[in-house]
Amino acid sequence: MGKTLMIIGAGVEQVPAYEAAKRRGLTIVGTDMNPDAPGFALADRKILVSTRDAESTCRKAVRFHQEHPLHGVMTIANDVPFTVALTAQTLGLPSISLDSARCVVDKVRMKQCFSASDVACPWFAEVESVEALRRHLQAKPGQSHVLKPVDGRGARGVLLLNEQIDLNWAFAESKRWGDSGRLILEEFIPGLQLSTESYILEGQCYTPAMAERNYSRLDEFRPNIIEDGGTIPPPIDDATRVAVNDLILRGATALGITAGIVKGDIVIAESGRPLIIELAARLSGGWFATHQIPAASGVSLVDAVISFALGEPISAAQLQPTRNRATAIRYWFPPAGTIQSIEGEEKLQTTPGLLKYDFFRKVGEVQPEIRMHPDRFGFVIVEGDNREEALSNVAQALACVTVRIQ
Question: Residues 274, 267: contact at Cβ < 8 Å?
């Protein structure tokens, strides 16, 4: 009999994992709390459970496994590494350790691991009250800081602080977006920010592509920190690439991750020194791993993650780029209000290098004020022969669409 793979989450960004598993002839068990989740259309069996409820997912997986053995558990674009690890470990299947999974979902614990192993990261402190927050800021006048939930996701409650901000509001606003209510304060390091997607294999770190994170709208949405996509390749030299790759490997080792995928958020300080903002033990969302990286490098990290989950061998050759192209993703940010019309989609479809686009809302629906990543209206991804062509193509694509708001 063939192998059966459980994919945690069946949302639109998990669909590429279902498609890749189908291509490999696997039996797919999908999990999601939404019975109409799009991934279920590709699943052979489905289990209704919240992806963030690790214990319930594990119990239901054990019951399923008793009747129909599972051979692997995985996710992509879903910040639930503990759900994956607990389920896999309980079933005796490959995964990162439970301790590593706890580290990557707790930003304070993560940074403590980095500090203990001398892995470069911005200064940080857990803050338990407005008074403590105020003391930390007063100790570093003139320095910008970022306040965020220790277990947040999707830029929810991530705030860029300065001397003018109302700290009582900021503390309450950030606190309400985390599951635990715990907050972390970090020094904001000016500089180029990178998204990385790496695979740790036999003591080596393979990073087939890095992207420059676009924060050109930082002042527009302040104090909220909203990313406007990214561009492969970033404007860095080979020495910086090597330094970033080495830093990711040391960061993963500090978290106890010796094999598997590691997603990195990195900042290159003005001195040229790279620092880790965060690491995640999963493939990223935003179509970075599923669309941008394959188009730019030819590497399918989704297939690598499937192989890891199933305990199948992965070769270094699978992780080495076979092409050298550029890609870019950008988002639309219309003002808040009711959407009256969405114009220019037919023209958008003729954009040179178009890979993928989507609108998250329809005519008649409400476009919210931009405070976090899910508030963005839609995205477009393009490719090009080089960085300049990709940037030109994505600017042309953005200009095609007009969203009229009442």
Answer: yes
Read off the amino acid at residue 332. W
Fold held by 4-95: Rossmann fold (3.40.50)
Answer whether residue 355 shows pLDDT above 70.
Answer: yes
Contact 282, 79 (CB under 8 A): yes
- Helices and strands: H and E segment counts in the chain: 13, 19
Region(s) of the chain under CATH 3.30.470.20: 190-324, 327-405
Please report the pLDDT score of residue 1 as a whole number: 63
pLDDT per residue as tens digits for the range 246-277: 999 999 999 999 999 999 999 999 999 999 99
- Residues 70-117: tens digit of each pLDDT: 999 999 999 999 999 999 999 999 999 999 999 999 999 999 999 999
What residue ranges of the chain are covered by domains with CATH 3.40.50.20?
Answer: 4-95
Q: What is the CATH number of domain 327-405?
A: 3.30.470.20
Tokens of 273: 């020194």
**Residue 95: both structure tokens together:** 């995964």
Classify domain 123-187 at the CATH topology level: Dna Ligase; domain 1 (3.30.1490)
CB 121 within 8 A of CB 111: yes
Q: Is 167 helix (H, G, I), strand (E, B) or coil?
A: helix
State the fold for domain 190-324.
Answer: D-amino Acid Aminotransferase; Chain A, domain 1 (3.30.470)
Predicted confidence (pLDDT) per residue in 303-325, tens digit: 999 999 999 999 999 999 999 99
Beta bridge partners of 72: 5
For the segment 361-397, what is each residue's pLDDT rounded down to a tens digit? Answer: 999 999 999 999 999 999 999 999 999 999 999 999 9
How many C-beta neighbours within 10 Å does residue 108 have? 17
Closest CA to 380 of 356, 399, 404: 356
